[in-house]
Amino acid sequence: MLNLILFGPPGSGKGTQALLLKEKYNLLHISTGDMFRMHTKNNTGLGLRVKEIMDSGELVPDSITIEMLEEEVRNNPQVRGFIFDGFPRTVPQAQALDTFLEAKGEKIDAVIQLNVSEEEIKSRISAREKISGRPDDDAVKLLKRLEEYFNKTIHVIPYYTSQDKVSKIDGIGEISDINISICEIIDGI
Ligand code: AMP
Question: Which domains does the chain have, with CATH numbers?
Fold first, then answer.
């Protein structure tokens, strides 16, 4: 199996790169943000629980997120591996994922960190807001999301650095060039 984490702030290109990588390596792309949005769109019980939190730009509680993620992995036993996009976003989520994968005899193979400046993030998300219709892409909500990122999510990097799994990539440039850099890392695993 090949299990990858695409890591980076909102607007760093995780989703875009995940779509390219899932085709090339035949992996299942799991975006917890997309899953939550599907639930809110369909007004499921989970969707109703998380809508307000998501719209505010805050993180959904770990217990809810971990349960949803693990269920999705369990529901796809036949795949070649996973691309985790937007998960883990806290150290407890990373620990839970390690424990969960270990119990299946699996592990995370690489954490690819996309580095993008705050200025670039703001400009990308403001452009995306016009087409995404996402309430959390508005400038004020984006600030909250960045606060969550710098307060909680960034700590996931030292967690995986201590396992020697993190590769940093410059996330600014042509999508195809960034993709080539990521593929070089994956091919070197
Ligand atoms: P994203 O599409 O990855 O930017 O996620 C959109 C929103 O979904 C986030 O701002 C959170 O409210 C929620 N969310 C997505 N993934 C997670 C996660 N791993 N942990 C907590 N909340 C999450």
Answer: 2-187 (3.40.50.300)
